[in-house]
Amino acid sequence: NAIAAGFDGVELHGANGYLLEQFLSPQTNQRDDAWGGSVDKRIGFVVEVVKEVTAAVGAERVGIRLSPYGTNAGMKAYPEIDETYQALVARLVPYGLQYIHIVDHSSLGAPPVPERLRKALRRAWPRTLILAGGFDRTLAEAALREGKGDLFAFARSFLANPDLVQRLENNRTLNPPDPSTFYTPGPKGYTDYPITT
To answer: DSSP strand E in 51-127: where?
Structure first.
């Protein structure tokens, strides 16, 4: 439906406590059938969704967002979390997804994604790796130079700075985002941030 509506592609949401992440975690996935139990079984649902979506719209139009160590919707780390995400990424490689988008919510108080896991996922993934979570221009440029990722997402910064690209290009001060307006109705916090001239 997204492609039929004119979207360029689809990002599967395997993060932030949504359904795909719920299947990955042994804390939320309490199934005792083919979709639950071992790491291999728990990642199976995500792999099946990737398989079907790439077959339906083409792998060149699909990416996936993951949030290991995220705490949204009550998610928590578990002993085999690194093993889970490394196994998942390895299983996704053959489907030709364009990118994996990894978000680190530590800037919002969640535990950080450990460097060992970041490096392991970077080594395992042969295509574009997008990183998100607390980046500013300096941090993103340093991470790019160090080869930690290929692209960097600026969600809250973009919301608060409709002219973010120009501000970054010219090293201008950024508007701070106002979290009290997130997910609220009306234009406040969405269309009223100042734009530099």
So the answer is: 62-66, 99-103
Which residue carries 């960097």 as its tokens?
152
Active-site residue (options: 18, 78, 95, 190): 18
Query: How many Cβ atoms are within 10 Å of 113's Cβ, its own excluded?
Result: 24
Contact (Cβ atoms closer than 8 angstroms) between residue 20 and residue 12: yes
Per residue in 66-116, pLDDT (tens digit) is: 999 999 999 999 999 999 999 999 999 999 999 999 999 998 899 999 999
Q: What does the block give as tokens for 31?
A: 């199934």
Burial class (CB in 10 A: 0-12, 13-18, 19+), 26: middle
User: Is 99 one of the annotated active-site residues of the chain?
Assistant: no
Instruction: Tell me how far apart the alpha carbons of residues 166 and 47 are, in angstroms, rounded to a whole number.
Output: 39
> Residue type for 28, please?
T
Q: How far apart are CA 136 and CA 133, in angstroms?
A: 9
Q: How far apart are CA 113 and CA 84, in angstroms?
A: 13
How does pLDDT run across 138-180, given as a tens digit for each residue?
Answer: 999 999 999 999 999 999 999 999 999 999 999 999 999 999 9
Q: How many CB atoms lie within 10 A of CB 112?
A: 14
